[in-house]
Amino acid sequence: MQVQELVEVVLPGTVEPEGFELRRGAVPVPGAGQVVVAMEATGVSFAEQQMRRGRYFDQPAYPFVPGYDLVGTVLTTGPGVPLDLRGRRVAALTKVGGWASHVLVDAADLVDVPDGVSPTQAEGAVLNGLTAWQMLHGKAKVRAGQTVLVHGANGGVGSLLVQLAALAGARVIGTASARHHDALRAMGVTPVDYRTEDVPARVRELAPGGVDAVFDHIGGRSVVDSWSLLAPGGTLVSYGSAATRDDTGSRYWPVLEILGRIWTWNTLPNGRHAYFYNVWAGRSTGRDGFRARLRADLTQVFDALRRGELTALVAAELPLARIAEAVRLAESGTVAGKVVLTP
Length: 343
Prior knowledge:
The chain is of the alpha/beta class. The protein has helices at 46-51, 119-123, 127-139, 156-167, 181-186, 199-206, 221-228, 253-266, 287-306, 323-331; strands at 6-10, 21-25, 34-44, 69-77, 89-93, 102-106, 111-112, 147-150, 171-175, 189-192, 211-216, 230-238, 273-276, 314-319, 338-342.
């Protein structure tokens, strides 16, 4: 019988992509309420790009195994977990730990992946699809006939946002570099080149009365411009600070600055609203409710994938052993969709 071995990627500190370490060991044994998932796909998200710089506001102490989400098959179950979970393909949001061949996960955190959805497609839509769905339907409540602006429309979250917004019947404006414009037009998006165009001026030309929602992962000056582009009653959803990824200093300040602006804007009597989206919001105060919302929302995303209404763009598939190459590709700003890692 073949003996299985754990292979995982360790982030030892603030390192270049070549500084990630590959570690081997014994496959973990699940405790009460836990399962071991044999990973089939995980991915490089923006959070890991910040973590290797020490810039993610909620990262653990070094060293640790990154990996914000994963898709795989339940290999073994611990006490108190139904045996029929074994062999099922599942997804999980982990924040850390996903960059490994075998991952310990609480059984209550698993979401079934439907038949007909590949591990790679499912992985492209776990964190990114959940984020897009909850921002679009939970925060902005986008409706048919509205106009929305999506920054980074070619990215992992952005590419799903524009598709979900179109499915909801909205008109979509998306920022991206020129190389991605043809693909965006094919999805029904009106593209704006953030590198060569004055984005606020161009959006005002396209939507003279303002847009009904803006989804901004950039932060910094961009979030101020995004607020200014809202129509009366519009909603800004900020969900990151990509503009400060390579900055030095406090990793908390970029988020605190955005939160301060949002608090101020929401006191203004103009009917507009602003939110800072955090996928983990509510987990510490009501874990059961958080899990139920996550499962319901991610199931909606997976069902849209299964029906062919939604496509998770995958920029590349690379094995864990090529982690440096995968991270450099994800950070290059040249790809559409998510860089996926396999065992």
